[in-house]
Amino acid sequence: DQQVKQNSPSLSVQEGRISILNCDYTNSMFDYFLWYKKYPAEGPTFLISISSIKDKNEDGRFTVFLNKSAKHLSLHIVPSQPGDSAVYFCAAGTYKYIFGTGTRLKVLA
Amino acid sequence: DAGVTQSPTHLIKTRGQHVTLRCSPISGHKSVSWYQQVLGQGPQFIFQYYEKEERGRGNFPDRFSARQFPNYSSELNVNALLLGDSALYLCASSFRINPASGGSNEQFFGPGTRLTVL
Hints:
The structure holds 2 protein chains of 2 kinds.
Chain A: E1 4-5, E2 10-14, E3 19-25, E4 32-38, E5 45-51, E6 56-59, E7 62-67, E8 72-77, E9 86-93, E10 97-99, E11 103-108
Chain B: E1 5-7, E2 10-13, E3 19-24, E4 31-37, E5 44-50, E6 53-57, E7 64-68, E8 74-78, E9 87-94, E10 108-109, E11 113-117
Parallel strand pairs in B: 2-11
Antiparallel strand pairs in B: 1-3, 3-8, 4-5, 4-9, 5-6, 7-8, 9-10, 9-11
Protein backbone atom coordinates (compact mmCIF):
# COMPACT_ATOMS: atom_id res chain seq x y z
CA ASP A 1 0.00 0.00 0.00
CA GLN A 2 1.80 3.08 -1.28
CA GLN A 3 1.24 5.93 1.16
CA VAL A 4 3.26 8.39 -0.92
CA LYS A 5 2.85 8.37 -4.67
CA GLN A 6 4.66 10.08 -7.50
CA ASN A 7 2.52 9.13 -10.45
CA SER A 8 4.78 10.51 -13.15
CA PRO A 9 7.88 8.32 -13.52
CA SER A 10 9.47 10.81 -15.88
CA LEU A 11 9.22 14.40 -17.07
CA SER A 12 11.00 16.32 -19.83
CA VAL A 13 11.16 20.12 -19.80
CA GLN A 14 12.92 22.69 -21.96
CA GLU A 15 15.70 24.71 -20.34
CA GLY A 16 14.35 27.95 -18.91
CA ARG A 17 10.80 26.67 -18.53
CA ILE A 18 9.04 25.60 -15.35
CA SER A 19 9.31 22.03 -14.05
CA ILE A 20 6.41 20.84 -11.89
CA LEU A 21 6.81 17.60 -9.98
CA ASN A 22 3.81 16.20 -8.15
CA CYS A 23 3.35 14.01 -5.11
CA ASP A 24 0.23 12.62 -3.43
CA TYR A 25 -0.07 11.11 0.02
CA THR A 26 -2.79 9.26 1.88
CA ASN A 27 -2.02 9.71 5.58
CA SER A 28 -3.45 12.92 7.01
CA MET A 29 -1.18 12.53 10.05
CA PHE A 30 1.90 13.37 8.01
CA ASP A 31 3.09 16.77 9.14
CA TYR A 32 6.38 17.29 7.39
CA PHE A 33 7.25 16.97 3.73
CA LEU A 34 10.62 16.88 2.03
CA TRP A 35 11.94 16.93 -1.53
CA TYR A 36 15.20 15.31 -2.50
CA LYS A 37 17.22 15.17 -5.70
CA LYS A 38 19.25 12.08 -6.49
CA TYR A 39 22.01 11.49 -9.01
CA PRO A 40 23.10 7.93 -9.84
CA ALA A 41 25.51 6.37 -7.33
CA GLU A 42 24.94 9.17 -4.80
CA GLY A 43 22.74 9.56 -1.76
CA PRO A 44 19.68 11.83 -2.01
CA THR A 45 20.41 15.54 -1.65
CA PHE A 46 17.96 17.56 0.41
CA LEU A 47 16.30 20.34 -1.59
CA ILE A 48 13.44 21.91 0.32
CA SER A 49 10.88 21.09 2.99
CA ILE A 50 7.50 22.26 4.17
CA SER A 51 5.60 21.67 7.37
CA SER A 52 1.88 21.06 7.47
CA ILE A 53 1.20 24.49 8.99
CA LYS A 54 2.30 26.17 5.75
CA ASP A 55 1.06 25.99 2.19
CA LYS A 56 4.12 27.35 0.42
CA ASN A 57 7.86 27.47 0.94
CA GLU A 58 10.32 29.08 -1.40
CA ASP A 59 14.10 28.74 -1.72
CA GLY A 60 15.68 30.30 -4.77
CA ARG A 61 14.46 28.55 -7.89
CA PHE A 62 12.60 25.92 -5.85
CA THR A 63 9.10 26.34 -4.45
CA VAL A 64 7.07 23.66 -2.71
CA PHE A 65 3.28 23.94 -2.48
CA LEU A 66 1.19 21.92 -0.05
CA ASN A 67 -2.55 21.35 -0.42
CA LYS A 68 -3.57 19.53 2.74
CA SER A 69 -7.20 19.07 1.81
CA ALA A 70 -6.16 17.34 -1.42
CA LYS A 71 -3.20 15.60 0.26
CA HIS A 72 -1.03 16.85 -2.57
CA LEU A 73 2.28 18.61 -2.79
CA SER A 74 4.24 19.87 -5.73
CA LEU A 75 7.74 21.11 -6.41
CA HIS A 76 8.20 23.94 -8.89
CA ILE A 77 11.61 24.64 -10.41
CA VAL A 78 11.88 27.94 -12.25
CA PRO A 79 13.80 28.39 -14.45
CA SER A 80 14.80 24.80 -15.12
CA GLN A 81 18.46 24.17 -15.90
CA PRO A 82 20.20 21.15 -17.48
CA GLY A 83 21.95 20.51 -14.13
CA ASP A 84 18.53 19.91 -12.59
CA SER A 85 18.29 16.64 -14.53
CA ALA A 86 18.05 13.95 -11.84
CA VAL A 87 15.53 11.76 -10.03
CA TYR A 88 13.37 13.69 -7.57
CA PHE A 89 11.82 12.03 -4.52
CA CYS A 90 9.17 13.42 -2.24
CA ALA A 91 8.99 12.16 1.33
CA ALA A 92 6.29 12.57 3.96
CA GLY A 93 6.10 11.78 7.65
CA THR A 94 7.19 13.10 11.01
CA TYR A 95 10.38 11.40 12.13
CA LYS A 96 9.94 8.36 9.95
CA TYR A 97 9.66 9.32 6.32
CA ILE A 98 7.83 7.47 3.59
CA PHE A 99 9.31 8.09 0.16
CA GLY A 100 7.64 8.11 -3.22
CA THR A 101 9.08 6.10 -6.10
CA GLY A 102 10.63 9.14 -7.74
CA THR A 103 10.24 11.18 -10.91
CA ARG A 104 13.08 11.36 -13.40
CA LEU A 105 13.40 14.94 -14.63
CA LYS A 106 15.24 15.66 -17.83
CA VAL A 107 15.91 19.30 -18.69
CA LEU A 108 16.62 19.70 -22.38
CA ALA A 109 19.13 22.33 -23.49
CA ASP B 1 32.01 20.86 7.64
CA ALA B 2 31.76 17.14 6.84
CA GLY B 3 28.42 15.71 5.79
CA VAL B 4 27.11 12.27 6.60
CA THR B 5 29.73 9.62 5.95
CA GLN B 6 29.15 5.92 5.39
CA SER B 7 31.48 2.97 5.11
CA PRO B 8 32.18 0.91 3.18
CA THR B 9 31.03 2.35 -0.15
CA HIS B 10 30.65 -1.06 -1.75
CA LEU B 11 30.39 -4.55 -0.35
CA ILE B 12 29.94 -8.00 -1.84
CA LYS B 13 28.73 -10.85 0.36
CA THR B 14 27.32 -14.32 -0.17
CA ARG B 15 24.01 -15.68 1.05
CA GLY B 16 23.96 -16.57 4.72
CA GLN B 17 26.75 -14.17 5.69
CA HIS B 18 26.29 -11.16 7.89
CA VAL B 19 27.23 -7.56 7.25
CA THR B 20 27.88 -4.43 9.30
CA LEU B 21 27.43 -1.01 7.77
CA ARG B 22 28.62 2.16 9.47
CA CYS B 23 27.46 5.74 9.51
CA SER B 24 28.75 8.96 11.03
CA PRO B 25 26.19 11.77 11.24
CA ILE B 26 26.75 15.46 10.68
CA SER B 27 28.46 17.02 13.67
CA GLY B 28 25.83 18.10 16.18
CA HIS B 29 23.13 15.82 14.83
CA LYS B 30 21.77 13.37 17.36
CA SER B 31 19.49 11.28 15.20
CA VAL B 32 20.41 8.66 12.63
CA SER B 33 17.99 6.86 10.34
CA TRP B 34 18.65 3.92 8.04
CA TYR B 35 16.93 3.33 4.72
CA GLN B 36 17.11 0.62 2.08
CA GLN B 37 16.76 1.58 -1.55
CA VAL B 38 16.31 -1.03 -4.24
CA LEU B 39 16.47 -0.16 -7.92
CA GLY B 40 13.46 1.75 -9.17
CA GLN B 41 12.05 2.45 -5.72
CA GLY B 42 12.29 5.22 -3.18
CA PRO B 43 14.20 4.68 0.07
CA GLN B 44 12.39 2.40 2.55
CA PHE B 45 12.67 3.24 6.25
CA ILE B 46 14.43 0.61 8.37
CA PHE B 47 15.32 2.23 11.73
CA GLN B 48 15.66 5.52 13.50
CA TYR B 49 17.87 6.11 16.52
CA TYR B 50 17.91 9.21 18.69
CA GLU B 51 20.12 9.67 21.71
CA LYS B 52 21.22 6.05 21.43
CA GLU B 53 17.69 4.67 21.65
CA GLU B 54 15.62 3.09 18.91
CA ARG B 55 12.75 5.47 18.17
CA GLY B 56 11.26 3.84 15.11
CA ARG B 57 11.37 0.63 13.13
CA GLY B 58 10.12 -0.09 9.65
CA ASN B 59 8.70 -3.29 8.25
CA PHE B 60 11.91 -5.31 8.11
CA PRO B 61 12.65 -8.77 9.57
CA ASP B 62 14.56 -9.34 12.79
CA ARG B 63 17.66 -10.15 10.74
CA PHE B 64 18.08 -6.38 10.60
CA SER B 65 19.37 -4.66 13.72
CA ALA B 66 21.12 -1.43 14.52
CA ARG B 67 22.62 0.56 17.33
CA GLN B 68 23.82 4.06 18.02
CA PHE B 69 26.98 4.88 19.94
CA PRO B 70 27.67 7.68 22.45
CA ASN B 71 29.29 9.75 19.69
CA TYR B 72 26.00 9.37 17.71
CA SER B 73 27.56 7.21 15.00
CA SER B 74 25.57 4.14 14.09
CA GLU B 75 25.87 0.60 12.78
CA LEU B 76 23.35 -1.38 10.78
CA ASN B 77 23.72 -5.16 11.00
CA VAL B 78 22.09 -7.67 8.71
CA ASN B 79 22.32 -11.38 9.47
CA ALA B 80 21.69 -14.42 7.28
CA LEU B 81 21.88 -12.39 4.10
CA LEU B 82 19.44 -13.11 1.29
CA LEU B 83 19.75 -12.25 -2.38
CA GLY B 84 16.90 -9.78 -1.88
CA ASP B 85 18.99 -7.78 0.59
CA SER B 86 21.04 -6.46 -2.32
CA ALA B 87 20.39 -2.72 -2.30
CA LEU B 88 21.78 0.70 -1.57
CA TYR B 89 21.72 1.30 2.18
CA LEU B 90 21.38 4.93 3.10
CA CYS B 91 22.03 6.64 6.38
CA ALA B 92 20.43 9.99 7.17
CA SER B 93 21.12 12.29 10.07
CA SER B 94 19.01 15.03 11.58
CA PHE B 95 19.31 17.31 14.56
CA ARG B 96 16.09 16.20 16.21
CA ILE B 97 13.32 13.76 15.46
CA ASN B 98 10.13 15.63 16.14
CA PRO B 99 9.39 18.90 14.35
CA ALA B 100 6.68 19.57 16.93
CA SER B 101 9.49 20.21 19.40
CA GLY B 102 10.49 23.18 17.33
CA GLY B 103 12.64 23.77 14.31
CA SER B 104 13.00 21.75 11.18
CA ASN B 105 13.45 18.05 10.76
CA GLU B 106 15.29 17.75 7.51
CA GLN B 107 17.21 14.52 7.11
CA PHE B 108 20.54 14.70 5.32
CA PHE B 109 21.71 11.58 3.54
CA GLY B 110 25.11 10.04 3.15
CA PRO B 111 26.33 8.58 -0.14
CA GLY B 112 25.15 5.09 0.78
CA THR B 113 26.68 1.63 0.89
CA ARG B 114 26.01 -0.54 -2.14
CA LEU B 115 25.53 -4.12 -0.88
CA THR B 116 25.54 -6.99 -3.36
CA VAL B 117 24.58 -10.45 -2.12
CA LEU B 118 25.60 -13.33 -4.40
